[in-house]
Amino acid sequence: MSTTDSPPSAPASAESSIGATAIAGAIVVAMLFALFYLASTPAYRAEATVPFLLAAVLITAAVIAATQWPRYVGHGLALAYGICAPIGAYLLRSQSDLVLVPLFLAACGVLALVLTPLSYHRKRAAWAFLLSLLVVMAVCTLFGAPKIRANFGVSMWIALMIPGLLGAASVGLGMLSGDYQEGVKARR
């Protein structure tokens, strides 16, 4: 080995990986805030700055955590959704005449509560169904955020935290696909 050859570099440690993603997340939040500040009127800025920053920081932190600890964060957020969805369904039913939407929301929450422990214990069908459920609910709540804002009287940014956190749960569960490949046989 000559003096110009250097030993192979050691793989990045978990701490440096988390630090790098945290810095990237902070840059993303700063860029989003700059765009928010430039695109909004002063009156709207005064009322929405705190909810916007809360949503941006929370969603960014959840996605970063989901990429670092996908099993725990993905299943933890799925469990949180399973607990909160029936509560939201009850509140929605008590505040409006809607029947089908709260019933669907409660059913999805109960289904998430049933599927999350099964998925955590590496049941492939439960994982696939839970991941599909969370992706669908993330898309539904993304486009339904104005309705959530109107029915619950919260800021639009608070309403957008729901699809953001469901998306983070989906990222975490999606990263676990390798854990569920064992024992799968190709059909001919």
Question: Would you kindly provide a written description of the structure presented here, covering whatever features stand out?
Answer:
The chain is mainly alpha-helical and 188 residues long. It is 78% helix and 0% strand. It has 8 helices and no strands. It has helices at residues 14-39, 42-68, 70-95, 100-120, 124-143, 145-152, 156-159, 161-174.
- Our measurement of the CA-to-CA distance between the termini, rounded to an integer number of angstroms, reads 52 Å
- Average pLDDT, to the nearest integer? 87
* Coarse shape: flat
Number of strand segments: 0
Radius of gyration: 20 Å
Structural class: mainly alpha
H/E topology pattern: HHHHHHHH
Q: How helical, in percent, are the residues? A: over 70%
Number of helices: 8
How is this fold's topology laid out?
Elements: H1 14-39, H2 42-68, H3 70-95, H4 100-120, H5 124-143, H6 145-152, H7 156-159, H8 161-174
Write a brief caption for the model:
The protein is mainly alpha-helical. Helices cover 78% and strands 0% of the residues.
Key terms:
188 residues, mainly alpha, 78% helix
